[in-house]
């Protein structure tokens, strides 16, 4: 199948933008972002070059895990709006060619969900088997996601004298996907939101969905994902399943499934983590190694590339000593490190020592084969909140202008019980309004990257190859298509370096698509000189073409 036959695979060339309605734009001055506010900001996202919005959870919730603890799947948190506002916002986005996907959080519910409230009232409740109960915890210890905050994945429910499983917090009881009634409920939830107009789902915590004691089918745990894919395809053929599968590449292959039968896109956690190791070392070698080993997938599927997201920057897939290197480089303070595996900082302050490195990182993000994902605020280099508040540090309110609260809300300060951004990253320094009017700003640079990415199909469809340019400090990668190929050059060192493009034949010409500011004009194409932290995108095509 060639790309021409895959025009409906919109996710393979998407620019994805993750946002939390609650922290994006407040329209009524109550201190919470809402859908009416988001609707006003769709044109800003359109101008940036976003083609797909990922909405973090917005349903009714006790909000003890930032909405990932849902108490009514068919509702909207009243602080954020209502179903009418959701439908209106989706429509406004789709009018601009922007698709909207939402979090599908069905590994668990909130313990306030009516299903769990009924289940825990009696062992004979019709909802008892919606969850996973045991008389005593199994001997086999399950890994803790939140060490230091939880001590087990089993919690005793005093009233009925049994333990229930919770892969995450104890207030998030796991659903029992081995129960066909639960799988039918999930189908109804998916069907409802597709009918309301969403273009797909970011599927939360996928490996947890099909493991543990509530596995859909112990003999064939991936059967649930195949069933989900078939159901979504029947209801809405072009709907996306974007999976959060925080595992090694070779394990992620199972979650794509043979013949594209499971997830369409998966976040590339391995590459994200090795980018930070390469940045820490100022040497591309670990990244080159990881990319060279990344498995090819069906043309209908792909990788969602990212640098930061709404969680901690997880370093769980690195070796212990590699993780320590990244901690040393980017999380010098104890409160910046969480769960022994991650960093709760945003990218700009982590790379704040040299703005060239920040641009190198985003050039890399948009040049690696896959669909780039931005976490809201990255486009302006927003900083984390200043305080020991865990993952909440990276989830501060969007900074729209230099005014009070960055134009996020008109609420009085007292309503915003959260610390401000770290030194130097407040709205007076970092905001959309000013940067959209500055052609040299990070916002303008990322907007250019998004445009170049969308006009360089080789990146999305080409075959990835890491080339040896003669200096491991520079990543030289190729995405080759029929008749033309994309070459990305990224210098992880602060020193100017020269690399040789090994495969450039006489009959080929190189066109510069984008390069770091102040780059010296290039001489002989096969010899490429890069400034410190410099980058360059090239298109190679046969002179005939
Ligand atoms: O996280 C699921 C997951 O796999 C976690 O290990 C995640 O990678 C991170 O380490 C949690 O800090 C998802 C969401 O991304 C997370 O925000 C939720 O807290 C979690 O599920 C439970 O819904």
Chain-wise SSE layout:
Blueprint: E1 16-19, H1 35-48, E2 52-55, H2 83-95, E3 99-104, H3 114-119, E4 133-134, E5 154-157, E6 162-165, H4 180-196, E7 200-203, H5 206-209, H6 223-235, E8 240-243, H7 249-256, E9 265-267, H8 269-281, H9 285-293, E10 302-305, E11 313-314, H10 320-330, E12 337-338, E13 342-343, H11 347-350, H12 355-367, E14 371-375, H13 432-436, H14 442-454, H15 457-461, E15 463-467, E16 474-480, E17 484-491, E18 497-500, E19 508-515, E20 527-530, E21 535-542
Parallel strand pairs: 1-2, 1-14, 2-3, 3-7, 7-8, 8-9, 9-10, 10-14
Antiparallel strand pairs: 4-6, 5-6, 11-13, 12-13, 15-16, 16-17, 17-21, 18-20, 19-21
Helix pairs in contact: 1-2, 4-6, 8-9, 8-10, 12-14
Query: Which sheet architecture does the biggest sheet show?
Result: 8 strands, parallel, barrel
- Summed over residues and divided by their number, the pLDDT gives a mean of 94
Give the end-to-end Cα distance, rounded to a whole number of Å. 23 Å
Tell me the name of the CATH homologous superfamily of the domain at 462-542.
Golgi alpha-mannosidase II
- Bound ions, cofactors and other small molecules, one mention each: 1-O-alpha-D-glucopyranosyl-D-fructose
- Round the Cα radius of gyration to an integer and report it: 23 Å
Helix content: 25-40%
- Based on secondary structure, the structural category is alpha/beta
Account of the 3D structure:
It is a single chain. The protein has an eight-stranded parallel β-barrel. It has a five-stranded antiparallel beta sheet with strand order 15-16-17-21-19. It has a three-stranded antiparallel beta sheet with strand order 4-6-5, with no helix packed on it. The chain has helices at about 35-50, 85-95, 115-120, 180-195, 205-210, 225-235, 250-255, 270-280, 285-295, 320-330, 345-350, 355-365, 430-435, 440-455, 455-460; strands at about 15-20, 50-55, 100-105, 135, 155, 160-165, 200-205, 240-245, 265, 300-305, 315, 335-340, 340-345, 370-375, 465, 475-480, 485-490, 495-500, 510-515, 525-530, 535-540. Among the domains are: about 115-165, Oligo-1,6-glucosidase, domain 2 (Alpha-Beta Complex), CATH 3.90.400.10; about 460-540, Golgi alpha-mannosidase II (Immunoglobulin-like, Sandwich). It is of the alpha/beta class and about 550 residues long. About 25% of the residues lie in helices and about 15% in strands. It has 15 helices and 21 strands. The protein binds 1-O-alpha-D-glucopyranosyl-D-fructose. 1-O-alpha-D-glucopyranosyl-D-fructose (TEU) binds next to loops.
């Amino acid at each position: 199948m060639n790309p021409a036959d895959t025009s409906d695979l919109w996710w393979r060339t998407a620019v994805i933008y993750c946002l939390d309605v609650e922290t994006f734009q407040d329209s009524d001055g109550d201190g919470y972002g809402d859908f009416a506010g988001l609707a006003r900001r769709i044109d800003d996202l359109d101008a940036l070059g976003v083609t797909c919005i990922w909405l973090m959870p917005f349903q009714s919730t006790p909000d003890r895990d930032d909405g990932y603890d849902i108490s009514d799947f068919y509702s909207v948190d009243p602080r954020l709006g209502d179903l009418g506002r959701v439908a209106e916002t989706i429509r406004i986005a789709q009018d601009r060619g922007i698709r909207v996907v939402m979090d599908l959080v069905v590994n668990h519910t909130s313990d306030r969900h009516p299903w769990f409230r009924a289940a825990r009232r009696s062992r004979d409740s019709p909802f008892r088997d919606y969850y996973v109960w045991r008389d005593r915890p199994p001997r086999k210890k399950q890994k803790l996601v939140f060490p230091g905050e939880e001590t087990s994945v089993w919690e005793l429910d005093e009233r009925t004298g049994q333990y229930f499983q919770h892969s995450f917090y104890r207030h998030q009881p796991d659903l029992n996907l081995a129960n066909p009634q639960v799988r039918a409920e999930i189908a109804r939830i998916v069907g409802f939101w597709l009918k309301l107009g969403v273009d797909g789902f970011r599927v939360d915590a996928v490996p947890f969905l099909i493991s543990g004691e509530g596995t859909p089918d112990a003999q064939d745990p991936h059967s649930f994902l195949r069933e989900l894919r078939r159901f979504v395809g029947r209801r809405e053929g072009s709907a996306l399943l974007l999976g959060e599968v925080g595992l090694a590449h070779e394990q992620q292959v199972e979650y794509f499934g043979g013949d594209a039968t499971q997830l369409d896109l998966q976040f590339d956690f391995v590459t994200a983590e090795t980018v930070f190791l390469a940045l820490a070392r100022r040497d591309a070698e670990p990244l080159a190694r990881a990319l060279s080993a990344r498995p090819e997938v069906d043309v209908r599927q792909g990788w969602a590339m990212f640098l930061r997201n709404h969680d901690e920057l997880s370093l769980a897939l690195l070796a212990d000593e590699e993780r320590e290197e990244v901690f040393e480089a980017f999380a010098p303070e104890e409160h910046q490190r969480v769960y022994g595996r991650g960093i709760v900082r945003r990218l700009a302050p982590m790379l704040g020592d040299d703005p060239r490195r920040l641009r190198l990182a985003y050039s890399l993000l948009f040049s690696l084969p896959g669909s780039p994902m931005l976490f809201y605020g990255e486009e302006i280099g927003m900083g984390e909140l200043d305080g020991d508040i865990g993952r909440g540090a990276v989830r501060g309110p969007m900074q729209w202008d230099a005014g009070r609260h960055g134009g996020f809300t008109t609420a009085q300060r007292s309503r915003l019980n959260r610390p401000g951004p770290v030194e130097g990253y407040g709205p007076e320094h970092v905001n959309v309004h000013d940067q959209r009017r500055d052609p040299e700003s990070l916002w303008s640079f990322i907007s250019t990257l998004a445009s170049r990415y969308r006009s360089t199909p080789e990146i999305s469809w080409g075959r990835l190859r890491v080339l040896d340019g003669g200096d491991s400090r520079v990543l030289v990668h190729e995405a080759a298509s029929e008749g033309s190929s994309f070459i990305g050059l990224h210098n992880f060192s602060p020193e100017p370096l020269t690399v040789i493009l090994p495969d450039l034949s006489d009959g080929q010409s190189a066109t510069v698509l984008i390069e770091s500011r102040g780059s010296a004009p290039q001489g002989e194409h096969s010899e490429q000189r890069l400034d410190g932290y410099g980058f360059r995108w090239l298109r190679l095509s046969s002179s005939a073409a």
